[in-house]
Amino acid sequence: SRKKPDLPKAAYYERIGNSKVFVFKSSINSTVFSQIIGNDKNRKNDDSPFYTVNLGTLVSKFQEWQREMPRVKPFYSVKTNNEPVILSTLATLGSGFDCASKNEMNMILGNNKLTTPENIIFAHTIKPEKFISHADKMGINKMTFDNEEELYKVKKFHSNPRMVLRINVSDQTAAHKLGAKFGSNPITDAPKLLKKAAELGLEVIGISFHIGSGATKEETYGIGIKYARDLFDKGLELGHNMTLLDIGGGYPGNDTDEEISLQKIAKVVNTALDKYFPESGNYEIIAEPGRYFATAPVSVTANIVSSVEIKAERITKKPTDSNITAYSYYLNDGVYGTFACKVADFCPTISSFPLFPKNNQTQYISAVWGPTCSDSDLIEEQTNLPHMEVGEWLYYPYMGAYSIVLATDFNGFERAKGYYCIDEKSLQYIKSRKAAKSDLLSVLF
Ligand code: PLP
Q1: Are residues 197 and 84 in the same domain?
Q2: Which positions ≥6 away from 52 have C-beta within 8 Å?
Q3: What does the mean pLDDT of the chain come to?
Q4: Per the domain annotation, does 89 fall within a domain?
């Protein structure tokens, strides 16, 4: 009873850097594109895991950002997903970049020169000396700091630093509260650091904060912006030319999450900006979104290596379920591969679907495991799936953030391979943006 997939065909391919991008005449759904790849693999008897990147979705996310927060320029956080095609698409659309290491700076300004140095912020408050010299060599001047030691280092190893003071403004409900590791106290420490920088003759150009990754309380952005205003005033008194406000990351990647959305955040941010950083002030307002851009365009598909009938009790841990049929599935990608976000707790909403659904199937309680010998290699503790057989594909949407970048070869299992697609309208939009930007030294489109 398997539905014969009636799948569209790509009109042509476009080479973007080293990647082959499938171009479709009209808008292409990520599930359908993954079905096309899965179908092709079935024909070739190739069961290796794969992920798909839908650049049309990335374009939509960028347009949504500009619509919701027109005053805030995104500096995409490269660490989240550094697929070259994602980086070059965002560069062409007009994004800046948050780089945290020498290699990340090279990805943006190395051979491909995706943008110019002023569109980069070296957004790590703890910097190896060699990385500071490297930033200097590349012409990257904007850098964050949150402690005095860093000021001495930067003074010694950079010829023209433009410092951004990171303060700790944390959403206590965030999946990753970065405040334990980064950010100075905005009331007690930050004013002292502004003063110290002035004494050392270092220019502080602004304030940054990151409310935490996987945040749920949009009002935290408002609190951060208010703190930043107070510190702008203190900095100005000390003679710093305060112009840059960086409202960090934390924007949700999955638009089906109802707790927080870009719309809700934008309401808070736009209101606070109008109040504390009005347009007439000519401020440069930036943000460092990571998961917001990377999550939705990427889907992961893995093949079922083993399908084992068990009793539901083993999954639910309820003795009353000892007579209920359930299944354990073992895939050829897992939490030491593309599902690494699961261990790092960065992808709370992992949920699978059969890539090729069948009609009217009974659902069973199921657990989904990865391929390695580790008992932590568990992708889904408990879900509901129809009975799936060996060789069938499980499909996971919203998988682009903190996944591919964290994948390892543990146990010798093959890493998933990427496939890329776009629709003609989105491609034309990217190309039109490229034409409008003569300042780009070279881009891949
Ligand atoms: N900026 C900095 C300094 C970060 O550490 C991170 C993530 O850890 C980000 C931006 C991106 O955060 P998110 O993916 O929550 O937007």
Answers
A1: yes
A2: 30, 33, 34, 37, 298, 299, 301, 418, 419, 420, 421
A3: 93
A4: yes
Q: Which atom of ligand 1 is nearest to the CA of 123?
A: 3
Q: Are 188 and 234 in contact (CB under 8 A)?
A: no
DSSP 58: H
Ligand 1 binding pocket (C-beta < 6 A) is 77, 80, 98, 123, 178, 210, 213, 248-251, 288-292
Q: Of all atoms in ligand 1, which is nearest to the CA of residue 176?
A: 8
Tens of pLDDT, residue by residue over 292-334, are 999 999 999 999 999 999 999 999 999 999 999 999 999 999 9
pLDDT in tens, 9-51: 999 998 877 789 999 999 999 999 999 999 999 999 999 999 9
Q: Does residue 324 share a domain with residue 228?
A: no
Domain presence at residue 406: yes
Query: 116 and 440 in contact (C-beta within 8 Å)?
Result: yes
One-letter amino acid for residue 105 of the chain: M
Our answer to whether residue 373 is catalytic in this structure is yes
pLDDT in tens, 82-93: 999 999 999 999
- Which range marks the domain in which residue 338 is found? 299-423
Rg (CA), the chain: 24
pTM for the model stands at: 0.95
Residue 8 pLDDT grade (very low, low, confident, very high; cuts 50, 70, 90): very high
